[in-house]
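Quick one:
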Amino acid sequence: MQVAIPLFPRFTALDAIGPYEVLQRIPDVEVIFVGHRRGEVRADNGMLGVLCDAQFNELTAPDVLVVPGGVGTRTLLDDAELLDWVRKAHTHTRFTASVCTGSLLLAAAGLLDGLTATTHWSAVELLEHLGARYVEQRVVEHLSQRIVTSAGVSSGIDMALRLVELLADADTACAIQLLIEYDPQPPFDCGSLTKAGEDVRRRAAQLRR
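Output:
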C-alpha cells in the first residue's frame, strides 16, 4: 500500500511528519514524499528540510493521499500541476485526507464542494470561499466520498490514527498509538479558539508566520 504525502515550500512540518509517523507503522505500507521535483523541500520556517523521493508524474495512483498544510498552501491555490495531480490521485485512493490548511488545496481541487470540512482556525473564511462548509471539529469524515479532513497541525495525528483503523483495524490503531505513546496531557487548556482567551489569541496572531 502506498501513502503519498505531497510537499511544497513552506509546508508545516508536523502536518506531514505526524501522519507519516503513524501511517508508516502499518505493516506493508510505503510512505512516499512527493512534489513538483525530487529533492529537498524546506518547511515554513526554513530550518527543516525534507526530501521528496518522487515527482507528481511518477506517483499517479497512491492508495492514500495526505495533504499537509502550511503558509505555502496559499501560493498553490491556482497551481495547475498540483491540483490536477490531486484530482487524478483521488480517483484511485482508498482515502484522501488533509491536515490543517491542506484542506484548502483539496477545496481548490474541487474535492470539498458542498461538503463539511475542517482546517486551521485562521483559514476558515478562505476554506468556505473555496466551496467547503467549515465545522469546528478535529477530524471530519465523508467516508462515502473517501475524504477525511483534520484541523490544525497536531490533529493530523488523530486523523492518521483513524485512517489506520479504516485501513487495518482498531487493534492496529491502538497498538500504533501505544507505540508512539500518544497520550496527550497538555500543560495548558487553550488548544482551540473556544478555550483561548483574548490575550492568548492576540499572542497567537503575533506569532503566526
